[in-house]
Design goal:
Layout lengths: L14 H23 L3 H4 L9 H11 L3 H23 L4 H22 L6 H11 L7 H28 L1 H11 L4 H12 L2 H22 L2 H17 L9 H28 L4 H6 L1 H24 L5 H8 L1 H16 L12 H25 L4 H10 L23
């Protein structure tokens, strides 16, 4: 490993993390687009979609993607904190200062993304949670593992109580379901009108959404604590070699089978409960803990599956290139989605079925898998990766490839 206080050099990158991050950014867009194309309630309540096959599409999304790839994305951020700190400390610099500066810039990027592009921004949450996670980075693997287990257990208990609460308190259930489940048509109409209107209305609506998520869902609902525990899990998995592709192919395969079997079993239980209840909000509320745990074990299963695929020789270079440009690709997906659906441009908000959304997703996936390798053929970084790294190290990083040795490029750190 390089000892300079600079991003990891191109030849020192870990293919495992690039590929895992690439799959994550692609998969996340396949569910995020639902919240770009229609009111937020459509993201949770699949029966609101008008198409004949939309419910089936939503169930496939739940089985394959929901909570699973976002969990890996979050854990990879934690792994990146460890790596950057290790490099800075080895070079005689202060790892804490480097990470604090990096997170501060990410917070600015996140706030800009949240206010100007899309309310579903995750960068702000990562930056804020990262300010706490950095203080765990120097723990031994064993100690970090126990801390992760304890904090994750507490977070699951907290989020579960918050999640099931509306099912037992009718007044609260009615209030929450109006916003999250679409039980009040006036709420759906107001959100649709806001995003089919001008940019000023978009920003006002995003401000309200940001408050609801960061304060009610994040702090009161325990999501910040759960995010912290997932980041710590990423740190731990990196330290024990799992997130570095260092385990054997057999171990990765076994863990992939176990993790995905458990996740899909829980998803089947969840889907059956929803179908039996006629997709009631009460059933959704009661089974919130099941969906959360399915996401956690499913993320672990997918991470192990990626390790196995690389161990048997699959290169997956376009996916790896996508992962190396995860920050730029993540923002690009937001720009594409909001441009298609919001009133300042395409104006298709609320007019597209879930099945049709998957056609858009497929086209965007293909574009990303094509443009990412081509871009990296001529440039060392994605555009936003270059800007973030230059600001983090207070030094303009080389950008365009020329006939000279490869400069530093940063390793495992998702947007």
């Amino acid at each position: 490993m390089a000892t300079a206080d600079a991003p990891v050099r191109e030849g020192e990158r870990l293919d495992y993390l690039d590929v895992l991050r690439g799959f994550a950014v692609l998969a996340i867009f396949a569910v995020n687009i639902k919240a770009m194309a229609a009111p937020f309630a459509y993201y949770l309540n699949a029966t609101l979609w008008p198409g004949e096959y939309d419910l089936l599409v939503a169930e496939v999304q739940a089985f394959l993607i929901d909570n699973k790839w976002r969990t890996n994305f979050t854990a990879l951020f934690g792994a990146g904190l460890v790596l950057i700190s290790m490099k800075a400390d080895a070079a005689g610099a202060k790892g804490t200062g480097r990470i604090l500066l990096r997170n501060s810039w990410l917070l600015l990027f996140g706030v800009a993304h949240l206010l100007l592009i899309w309310s579903g921004d995750i960068l702000t949450v990562y930056a804020l949670t990262g300010f706490i996670a950095i203080w765990f980075r120097n723990l031994s693997g064993r100690t970090l593992g126990w801390c992760t287990l304890g904090i994750m257990t507490a977070a699951l208990a907290w989020t579960s109580l918050f999640g099931v609460g509306p099912a037992f308190v009718p007044e609260l259930g009615a209030e929450v379901s109006a916003i999250m489940w679409g039980s009040d048509p006036a709420v759906l109409d107001a959100e649709t009108a806001a995003y089919l209107g001008g940019v000023g209305g978009h920003i006002q609506s995003r401000l309200q959404s940001a408050f609801d998520y960061l304060v009610m869902y994040g702090l009161v609902g325990g999501q910040f604590l759960l995010t912290l525990s997932i980041m710590l899990a990423g740190m731990w998995l990196f330290k024990i070699g799992f997130y570095r592709g260092a385990w054997s192919g057999g171990n990765y395969l076994l863990l992939a089978i176990i993790g995905l079997a458990l996740a899909w079993g829980l998803e089947a239980l969840h889907a059956n409960a929803m179908a039996t209840s006629g997709w009631s909000f009460e059933a959704f509320s009661l089974y919130t803990p099941v969906a959360t745990i399915a996401g956690l074990v499913g993320a672990f299963g997918y991470a192990a599956l990626v390790g196995f695929m690389l161990k048997i020789g699959l290169k997956l270079r376009p996916v790896a290139a996508t992962g190396r440009m995860a920050f730029s690709n993540y923002i690009a997906c937001s720009l594409i989605g909001t441009t298609i659906f919001y009133g300042h441009a395409g104006g298709l908000y609320g007019q597209v079925t879930n099945l049709q959304l998957m056609g858009i997703v497929a086209a965007v996936w293909l574009a990303i898998l094509i443009w990412s390798p081509i871009w990296l053929k001529y440039f060392y970084f994605g555009p936003l990766e270059w800007l973030w790294r230059s600001l983090t190290y207070w030094q303009v990083q080389p950008f365009r490839r020329k006939d000279r040795p490869a400069p530093a490029t940063e390793s495992p750190e998702p947007a």
